[in-house]
Every structure is written in structure tokens, then in C-alpha cells.
């Protein structure tokens, strides 16, 4: 998964590197010294891979089988691979311009190229994207544990299946308990590397989901109880062509991790490791995405829902179907619970930088840290109880903030080229990324708006 060997040579910063406030945004500079270095001598390669992979593999994976239903298997898998390559290319550009400009945060790179307005625009997009993504996490957790309804059909949740329908296993109460007992404690950590163990566990849980889903699909395929799904999309009319573009925002959202790359890089003992870390993470995540998309769509075909986890409430037609379904759903719900604090970390930093750019660092103000965290958790919790579908949330964030963070901003920085290091290849690649991003997501927004208008007037 390599876009050329164009990463700049980087100097190892070693254990004695100076940790600035922006370099480890929530660590006080007053603590930099022998005590801090003894306690934290740099994040490990594996820890960084797990944290970046956890940033990537989130809720987007649950909608990827639905994108196969829209695109067909061959174009769908090809698009996953294409976006993986584009993501590596955009991160490489971002890191290269960060190095030359001595920028240690995404906002610094945007500020270096476009001034204060550029920094603020980036922070706004990160806030919109991360709030949208975490709302999706909560929606999926609610779907898994409490059930959901789609097209007039109710898909029961795990708790409903185990204990029946009660007030205490309803969506509102389950999400409230999850927020208080799981999200709030995990969101209280002030350093990304503190989450390396939960990130490793979250990746393992995602793999469990993929392995079980693949096993069920292969078993049913061998006994002839399912048919091969369509390889290419059905295009009977012009409207169906526009509909193909609605899958693009979902694919964009699935690979967005750019806002955490600097935080992970800044905590590395040797910053030259960021290149193999990015490649390893993208390779791992792309493999998981392709497997999930293929086997999820193979298993459910044209009945695949926007949130494929909701499909696992039915009898799968194999021995121990109920047990396997519950394991799949609970394991991925637990995965999302562990992903949540990684995304929340970047959200809190960017919102604080947007609202309190001249205030003292967030880590030194426990009251502001607590109030910001509580306010964000409350907003996400309330939104998750009112937004009906993860597809709706993905379409909004993916077509606006996510595509800007992942592709438009890195390309714009390269075209602006404030330090004169961009090559012709970089410029051409940047123009291509911007054209693809604007065209495909513009058509996706138009298609979604047309569908919504037609459904309301019908």
C-alpha cells in the first residue's frame, strides 16, 4: 500500500526530545524533565499502530456491506483499495509539509499555509466530523443492545433477546449507562498513548467480528444456502447512476484518521517510524474492510441493512446461530466503545482550540477540561437518540467535513506550497484528489437531496 517512497528522511528525536505543549497537547510543559521522561519515554511502534488503526476502523465498517449492495462487489472492493491509496498519499503530503514547516499539529500546517482562517476551518471540520462519527457509534451500540426498526421491520437487540422488552434495556437508558460507566472514564485520559491497550483490544474485537462473519458466509456458501451476490451494480436508469455516488461519503469516512496522525507522531520516540506505522495501519484496516464488505454482503445479499449488525438478529440457518449472532454483535459493540475515546481525544482538543485559542493549555485547567468533556458527551448522547440511521449521519459528515479533512485540505496545502517543496507529481495528485472529492461528494449530496425530496412529496 505504497504511494512511492516520498516520505522525507526524518531525524530521530530520541528519548530526550523536548515535549512542547502542542507536541503533547494535554501534557504540561512544567512536567518535562527527568520525572516525565522516566514515566513516558515515547510511544511504541505497536501501540501507535493500534491507536491509528483504531482511529480508522470505527463505525464505517458497518456500512461497507451496504456500499457493496449499491456498487456491486468488484467496483466496491476496488473503491476500498483506491481510497486506501489516496489516504496514504494525503497523509504523506500532510506529514511532509509538517516537517518542513516544523508544524506539530494538523491545525499548525493549515495555519502555516492559510493563516488563522485555515486553522479555524480545519478545527471546525474536525469537530463536525468527530461529533458525527461518535453519534454513529452510539446509534450502532443502541441498535445492537436495544434493537432498531427499518422499513417497518423491527430488529431486536441483544438485551431484548435475552431478557425481553423492558424499560431498562431501551435505547435511551442503555446509552445513558454506557456513557456514564464506559465513555466518561475512558474519555478522561489526557494522552493518546494511555489508550494503547484498549486500542489493541478494540482491533482484536474487530478481527473477531470479521472471522466469525467470514466463517458463517463460507459455511453457508458451501452448503448452497446462499447465492453469490451481484458483482456489478444494476443501472436501469439515470437515477441509479446518481445513486452510486451515495456510497462515496461512507468510504471517505471509513478511512479518515488524519486528525490523530500528529498526536500519535508526537508521542513516538523516533518520528521516522510514522511512515511504516501509517502503511501498516492502512494495510491492516484495508484487509479488514475488504473482508467485512465481501462476507457481509455475501451473507445477507440484497437484504443487507445500512448497519449490517442489525441483520444478525435473525436465524442464520447454521448450528449455534443465536450464540454466534450475539457474539458478533456484542464484540463489535464493545469494539466501538473502545474506539470512542480515541476519536473523542481529537474532538476535545480541536473544540478547545477553536473556542479558547488564547486561553491557557487545556491540561492546566481541570474545570475547563471537565466542562468541555461533559458538554460534548451530553451533545453526542442526545443526538444519538434522535438521529434515526447511521447512513444519514455518514452522508452528512462524509460528504462535507470528512472529505475536507482527508483529501481537500492536504491537497490545498500542497497546491499552496508555502515552502516550495511540492513536486509536479504532488500538484497533479492534489488536483486529482480535489476533483474527485468535490465531484463525487457533490453528486452524492445531490442524489441524497433528490431522494429525500421525492420521498417527502410521494
TrEMBL record:
It is found in: Membrane. It is a multi-pass membrane protein. Residues 43-416 form the Amino acid transporter transmembrane domain. Pfam families: Aa_trans. The chain crosses the membrane at residues 70-95, 120-141, 172-189, 201-228, 240-261, 282-300, 330-347, 367-387, 393-415, 427-446. It comes from the Eukaryota. GO terms for molecular function: L-amino acid transmembrane transporter activity. One of its GO terms (cellular component) is organelle membrane. Keywords: Amino-acid transport, Membrane, Transmembrane, Transmembrane helix, Transport. Its main location: membrane. InterPro entries: AA_transpt_TM (IPR013057). This is Amino acid permease 8. The gene is AAP8.
Amino acid at each position: 500500500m505504497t504511494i512511492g517512497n516520498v516520505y522525507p528522511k526524518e531525524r530521530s528525536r530520541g528519548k530526550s526530545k523536548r515535549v512542547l505543549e502542542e507536541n503533547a497537547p494535554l501534557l504540561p510543559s512544567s512536567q518535562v524533565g527527568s520525572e516525565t521522561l522516566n514515566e513516558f519515554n515515547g510511544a511504541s511502534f505497536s501501540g501507535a499502530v493500534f491507536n491509528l488503526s483504531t482511529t480508522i476502523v470505527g463505525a464505517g465498517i458497518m456500512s461497507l456491506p451496504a456500499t457493496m449492495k449499491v456498487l456491486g462487489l468488484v467496483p466496491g472492493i476496488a473503491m476500498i483499495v483506491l481510497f486506501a491509496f489516496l489516504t496514504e498519499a494525503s497523509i504523506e503530503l500532510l506529514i511532509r509539509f509538517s516537517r518542513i514547516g516544523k508544524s506539530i499539529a494538523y491545525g499548525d500546517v493549515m495555519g502555516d499555509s492559510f493563516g488563522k482562517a485555515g486553522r479555524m476551518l480545519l478545527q471546525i471540520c474536525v469537530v463536525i466530523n468527530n461529533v458525527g462519527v461518535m453519534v454513529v457509534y452510539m446509534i450502532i451500540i443502541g441498535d445492537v443492545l436495544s434493537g432498531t426498526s427499518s422499513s417497518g421491520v423491527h430488529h431486536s437487540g441483544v438485551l431484548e433477546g435475552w431478557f425481553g422488552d423492558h424499560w431498562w434495556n431501551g435505547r435511551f437508558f442503555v446509552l445513558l449507562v454506557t456513557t456514564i460507566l464506559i465513555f466518561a472514564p475512558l474519555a478522561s485520559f489526557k494522552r493518546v498513548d494511555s489508550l494503547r491497550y484498549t486500542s489493541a483490544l478494540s482491533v482484536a474485537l474487530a478481527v473477531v467480528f470479521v472471522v466469525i462473519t467470514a466463517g458463517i458466509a463460507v459455511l453457508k456458501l458451501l452448503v448452497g444456502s446462499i447465492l453469490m451476490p451481484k458483482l456489478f451494480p444494476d443501472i436501469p436508469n439515470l437515477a441509479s447512476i446518481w445513486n452510486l455516488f451515495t456510497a462515496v461519503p461512507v468510504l471517505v469516512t471509513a478511512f479518515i484518521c488524519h486528525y490523530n496522525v500528529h498526536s500519535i507522531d508526537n508521542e513516538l520516540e523516533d518520528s521516522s517510524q510514522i511512515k511504516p506505522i501509517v502503511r501498516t495501519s492502512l494495510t491492516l484496516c484495508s484487509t479488514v474492510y475488504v473482508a467485512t464488505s465481501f462476507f457481509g454482503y455475501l451473507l445477507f445479499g440484497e437484504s443487507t441493512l445500512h448497519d449490517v449488525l442489525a441483520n444478525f438478529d435473525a436465524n442464520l440457518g447454521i448450528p449455534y446461530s443465536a450464540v454466534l449472532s450475539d457474539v458478533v454483535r456484542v464484540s463489535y459493540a464493545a469494539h466501538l466503545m473502545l474506539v470512542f475515546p480515541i476519536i473523542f481525544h481529537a474532538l476535545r482538543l480541536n473544540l478547545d482550540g477553536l473556542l479558547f485559542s488564547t486561553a491557557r493549555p487545556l491540561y492546566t485547567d481541570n474545570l475547563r477540561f471537565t466542562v468541555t468533556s461533559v458538554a460534548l458527551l451530553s451533545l453526542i448522547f442526545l443526538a444519538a437518540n434522535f438521529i434515526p440511521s447511521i447512513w444519514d449521519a455518514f452522508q452528512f459528515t462524509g460528504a462535507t467535513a470528512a472529505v475536507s479533512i482527508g483529501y481537500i485540505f492536504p491537497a490545498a496545502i500542497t497546491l499552496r506550497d508555502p515552502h516550495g517543496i511540492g513536486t509536479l507529481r504532488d500538484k497533479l495528485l492534489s488536483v486529482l484528489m480535489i476533483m474527485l472529492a468535490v465531484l463525487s461528494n457533490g453528486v452524492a449530496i445531490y442524489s441524497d437531496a433528490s431522494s429525500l425530496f421525492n420521498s417527502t412529496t410521494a
